[in-house]
């Protein structure tokens, strides 16, 4: 039912599986003996983080923050808001943030700064997608699943007005979907 609104599939379910496996291997090499905090930025991180977790065969702690910047539209508002802070102290801990996408870089940059300020031993970012053409801040994620062009994508955690997060792949919406609602 949701698929009919999709114009192009950008990352298929098979591609997602391969990407997650590759990232899990790289993350395991670095973190297997560090008992890191795997910090998910809600809500977009959920499918990616859940899939990634299953392939990380070492001790880790999970935590979440709810940070928003898009507020339901198709472009970043430029405003980063912490709706829910994480409950776990990060002082002297290795923190690996899991994100669905880094676009302007504003969200991730402000979260990384905050965690460093709170005394995290290290802060790195694993993002499923990186959209470097959208950057307004100089930020390079440490682990990237796929670099994508400047297009508005939905699925596998990413939404348009809170919809489409539950699509099992990433794709672009047919323009008529967002044009009819704006
Ligand atoms: C999206 C995405 C990233 C951020 C990326 O979150 O999950 O956190 O925007 O954009 P940026 O690099 O331009 O800051 P959003 O604020 O839409 O919240 P959500 O995860 O709940 O959808």
Overall SS class: alpha/beta
Strand order of the largest sheet: 4-3-2-5-6-7
Number of helices: 4
Bound molecules: 1-O-pyrophosphono-5-O-phosphono-alpha-D-ribofuranose
Order of helices and strands: EHEHEEEHEEEEH
Mean pLDDT: 92
Strand content: 25-35%
Q: Features of this protein?
A:
29% strand; 182 residues; 4 helices; alpha/beta; binds 1-O-pyrophosphono-5-O-phosphono-alpha-D-ribofuranose; 6-stranded mixed beta sheet; 3-stranded antiparallel beta sheet; single chain
Describe the protein.
- The protein has 182 residues and is an alpha/beta fold.
- Helices cover 24% and strands 29% of the residues.
- The protein has 4 helices and 9 strands, in the order βαβαβββαββββα.
- The mean pLDDT is 92.
- The chain has helices at residues 13-31, 46-53, 106-117, 175-179, and strands at 6-11, 37-42, 61-68, 81-84, 94-102, 122-130, 143-147, 153-154, 170-173.
- The strands form 2 sheets. The chain has a 6-stranded mixed β-sheet.
- Bound molecules: 1-O-pyrophosphono-5-O-phosphono-alpha-D-ribofuranose.
- 1-O-pyrophosphono-5-O-phosphono-alpha-D-ribofuranose (PRP) is lined by residues 41-44, 68-70, 76, 99-108, 159.
Summarize the structure.
This protein is of the alpha/beta class and about 180 residues long. Helix content is about 25%, strand content about 30%.
Question: How would the blueprint of this fold be written?
Answer:
Blueprint: E1 6-11, H1 13-31, E2 37-42, H2 46-53, E3 61-68, E4 81-84, E5 94-102, H3 106-117, E6 122-130, E7 143-147, E8 153-154, E9 170-173, H4 175-179
Parallel strand pairs: 2-3, 2-5, 5-6, 6-7
Antiparallel strand pairs: 1-9, 3-4, 8-9
The chain binds 1-O-pyrophosphono-5-O-phosphono-alpha-D-ribofuranose (PRP).
């Amino acid at each position: 039912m949701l698929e009919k609104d999709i114009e192009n599939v950008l990352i298929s379910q098979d591609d997602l599986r391969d990407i997650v496996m590759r990232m899990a291997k790289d993350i395991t090499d670095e973190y297997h003996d560090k008992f890191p905090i795997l910090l998910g930025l809600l809500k977009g991180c959920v499918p990616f983080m859940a899939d990634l977790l299953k392939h990380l065969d070492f001790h880790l702690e999970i935590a979440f923050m709810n940070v928003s910047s898009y507020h339901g539209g198709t472009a970043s508002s430029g405003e980063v808001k912490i709706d829910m802070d994480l409950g776990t102290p990060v002082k002297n801990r290795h923190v690996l943030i899991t994100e669905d996408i880094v676009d302007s870089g504003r969200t991730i940059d402000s979260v990384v700064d905050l965690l460093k300020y709170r005394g995290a031993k290290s802060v790195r970012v694993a993002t499923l997608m990186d959209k470097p053409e959208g950057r307004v801040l100089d930020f390079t994620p440490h682990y990237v699943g796929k670099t994508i062009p400047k297009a508005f994508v939905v699925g596998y955690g990413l939404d348009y007005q809170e919809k489409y997060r539950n699509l099992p792949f990433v794709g672009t919406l047919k323009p008529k979907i967002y044009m009819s609602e704006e």
